[in-house]
Each structure stands twice: as C-alpha cells, then as structure tokens.
TrEMBL record:
This is 3,4-dihydroxy-2-butanone 4-phosphate synthase. D-ribulose 5-phosphate binds at residues 52-53, 57, 165-169. It catalyses: D-ribulose 5-phosphate = (2S)-2-hydroxy-3-oxobutyl phosphate + formate + H(+). In the N-terminal section; belongs to the DHBP synthase family. Belongs to the DHBP synthase family. The gene is ribB. It comes from Vulgatibacter incomptus. InterPro entries: DHBP_synth_RibB-like_a/b_dom, DHBP_synthase_RibB, GTP_cyclohydro_II, RibA-like_sf. One of its GO terms (cellular component) is cytosol. Its EC number is 4.1.99.12. Residues 233-393 form the GTP cyclohydrolase II domain.
Amino acid sequence: MSNRIGRGPSSNASKKPAGQPKSSPSYLERVERAIADIRDGRMIILVDDEDRENEGDLCMAAEKVTPEAVNFMAKEGRGLICLTLEEDRIKRLNLPMMVTDNESPFQTGFTVSIEAARGVTTGISAHDRAHTILTAVAPEARAEDLVRPGHIFPLRARTGGVLVRTGQTEGSVDLARLAGLEPAGVICEIMNDDGTMARMKDLERFGETHDMVIVSIADLIRYRLERERLVRRVAEDELEVAGVGTFRSIAYQSSGDPRTHIALVQGDVRGLEPVLVRMHGACGMGDVFGSAACECGVNLRRSLARIAEEGRGALVYLQQEGRAGAQALKCARMAPEVEEAMAKKSAGPFRDYGLGAQILADLGIRRLRLLSNNPKKLVGLEGYGLEVVDRLPIEVAEGRRSVAGTGRVAAHRVANSRGTSGKTAKKAARKDRS
C-alpha cells in the first residue's frame, strides 16, 4: 500500500521542458491517470459541475486508506470525510438511511454514521477513522463489526454509478471499480483557508501543489459510455394521448433496476437537428390525479402538446428512486410559490437524469431544445454526447395562476399554525436548500 498522497512535487508527470507551453490532457488521459493513481493508493480531485455544487472532492480507494491519508483530508481538504459504498454492502452491514424522506437537493444518500466496534479509542483520530473505514470495507465485514453512531459517514452509491446518478459518491465508487479494487471510496470536500468552498481556479492550484489529477463527472460518464451501456429497450408500441395525438411509446429498463422508464416520441428525432425534449420526473399526485397543488401534471400535458404541435420531439418519463412518497407529500402540502423557491435551490428530477440521457442517446438525439422551468444545468451532459442548444419555459395557464394564489393562502395557514408568519415561511423555504 502506498502512503503517498499525490504523485509528489518531484513527479516527472507534471514537468515540462523549459519554454514548452503546458497542454491540457485529454479526458482519456485524465481518467486513465486517475484510475492508475486510485489503484496505487493515491488521491485525485473529483469535480462535478459549476452549475451543480461546483465543488471538488479529494477521492481515494477505501481499501487503500491510511491514517496519513485521513489526516491529509482533515487538514488540507477540511470538508466532511465520507465513505462511499455500494447498495449491496450497505445492506450487508445493515446500515439504515439517515432519514426515511430525503429532502436534500441532490438526494445525497447518507446512512447512519459508524465506528469500528473494536480497535478504536475516541473514534475521531486519524488512526481510528482509517481503522473504521478499513473495517467497513473488509471482504468479510459484518454488521457486528460496527457500532452506530460514529465518526465516519457512509454514503450509498446508486447502482449503475455515474450513468445513473451524476454525483461524486457514484464517481468515487466507479473509479475504485475501474481500478480493480473494492468498489468503495473515501471522499472529502476541498475548502479554502478562509472556509469558503474551493472552486475550479482554487482546485487547479491545489492539484498542482499536490500533483493530483482533476477528473470531472463528465469525464467518467464519457469513459464509461464508450465501454458500456445500461439502458435497454423492453417494449415498443403506439400510444394515443387523449386530446394531444399519437406517440411512439418505448419502454426502457436498466441493469439491476426494476423500474420502467418511458419515452414518448413523435417524428424522426435522429440526427443533428435540435429536437424538442422534456425530461419529466414521475409524479403520481400531479400526473395521475391532477393535483391542483403542483404543476407536474400541467407541465406533462403542456409538454406533450408542444411536441405534438411541432410534430417532432420526445418526452422521457422517469421513475425516480425513492421520490414517489416525497413527491406526493410535496404536491399535497406545498404552495407553488414555495415550490418555485425550492426549485431554484434544487436540481429536481435532473439530479438522477443519467438514465434519461442514455435514453435520449439511444433514440439518436444529439442536440436538444429543453422544455423546463428549472434553470439548473444538467451535470456532465457532454459526457453523453448531448448538447442543450436552447431552454424553453413551460408556460402556465392563467387558471393555474389563480390556483397558485390559493396555495399561498394554504402555505400562510400552515406557517401560522407553527407560530411563523407567511413571510418568514417563504424565507425559510428559500434557506432550506442552501
């Protein structure tokens, strides 16, 4: 096991002959170096996207962790040190999720915190945390080997990795697997000396100082897509949508996932001509029951109507893991005004859009005009060979605006029942996702 953190300031990998301009490595060079470094027990910097969290995480293979590595993360990274695990290991270790209804903007999969049952003292030292991590990822690890709570925070990685969920949790597990190691990682956000989050310029300086390669989620997506594909077509038929028209209905499933996603298509969507596209997260209350407290059903029907008007486009209907109950409650209790404020802080259905992006690629779509009221950029989209050339808002009918007014009254009543003014409730809603 290597005790080195990065390749070291004397590494030939970072040296250039005098006078030669510094060239940017290709995505393939970045990913392959990252895989090699992960395999050797070194750290790399894993970044998401400036329109998502806009952060970089120190990342290494869990089975290679040392007290020195934990100390480096705590001292130089300064963020929360987390252990990323596959769902199967989470189940084997009997780790319940931290909450039953995950309301975090990006659906971060925290379980309860853990500590090794033996071989630790206070649990917080670099030695103790490294020991806890190694205990949890040992080949024969059992639930009895850990106690709860503790000083290590496991994160559940979605099956399918970055091709399903575009997060650093999945990215770290993917990198460990690609390196031929136990699919588990250790990650820690990188912060500046003053406590602010390190952004790309800061991360580049950090990487150069410690000779760490920077890899993005988009790099990993592209690397994996060139070697594997998760989605497959399971059924295809014509579907008559009442009051709208006839669509080609294509059902998709993915490896290890029983959920079925649907693509509704009109016209020939293949080629480079931009295609009207709606990525729609399933909402039973709005889509099926027509709840007046959310705009999900209205957005669905108006999107289909827009596609039918143009005669060319696609709507991808995504069944989102663990969102049915939360979505139903949200639509039942939240005013549209509060929901809109929350949407500005949340990625909404786009956080888990990886499968949807693969579906678009399977349909032959390359450039899209996205129907969405959400200003968030889709993380790592270029990794799928897709480009958003335009973003079109879904107009809300005047009748819905009057419903919004009713919703605001309801929100005011809920706020007052908790001893909070409606104005304060709106502020709380805005802060809730910060």
